[in-house]
Design brief:
Blueprint lengths: L3 H58 L6 H16 L3 H22 L3 H5 L1 H36 L3 H4 L16 H4 L8
Helix pairs in contact: 1-2, 1-5, 2-3
């Protein structure tokens, strides 16, 4: 009977540690899936915006065909956005895209007929909606990354989280904050 109490204590401790590991593992998996889902939302919105760009270029090109440099920079920024493989690449591409969009809208301001075009106005509205969705998706993603990274860093999770294959994720931050300090003007 004397040996029964230490055995029970050991079994209870092992059970508590097992339940803790099980619960922590499942919460880490949940957070990882949430971050993956949020990143997917960002890529969907970035692709949606990139799909609007050729139509926008064609609308403006009909009125300002001589602005070849602006069209090339927007096209290059679009390609960069589509090729971005992670938050770091996407943030650099985002900076370039914002700069390029500002340029194309600056060109469009010089053409009143373009500003009155229903096609151009519809593209503007879709672009504004998409920009709002990109920002919302980015906030959701960064919130998920914050939760996951915190869960990985806190003790005692930091002891075993990396061994279980969980790594910290990168935030989706824009490299040049000045480039997005003022969103592209799309209202005339």
């Amino acid at each position: 009977m004397e040996w029964l109490i230490p055995v029970i204590v050991v079994v209870v401790l092992v059970a508590i540690i097992g339940i803790y590991l099980w619960a922590t593992y499942n919460s880490l998996v949940t957070l990882k899936v949430r971050v993956d889902e949020a990143w997917s939302d960002i890529t969907v919105q970035l692709k949606r915006r990139a799909d609007l760009i050729p139509n926008l270029i064609e609308s403006v090109k009909g009125y300002a065909a001589h602005e070849k440099g602006v069209f090339e920079s927007v096209t290059a920024a679009r390609a960069e956005t589509l090729q971005a493989q992670g938050p770091v690449d996407a943030s650099v591409a985002e900076t370039h895209m914002q700069t390029a969009l500002k340029s194309i809208f600056a060109v469009a301001e010089a053409y009143p007929q373009l500003q009155a075009s229903q096609n151009f106005l519809q593209l503007q509205a879709e672009l504004v909606d998409t920009e709002d969705k990109v920002q919302a998706s980015r906030r959701f993603y960064n919130g998920g990354v914050r939760e996951l990274n915190t869960k990985i860093r806190v003790f005692p999770n930091n002891v075993f989280a990396k061994r279980l294959g969980f790594t910290e994720r990168e935030f989706f931050e824009v490299a040049d904050l000045a480039a997005i300090a003022e969103p592209p003007r799309v209202q005339f």
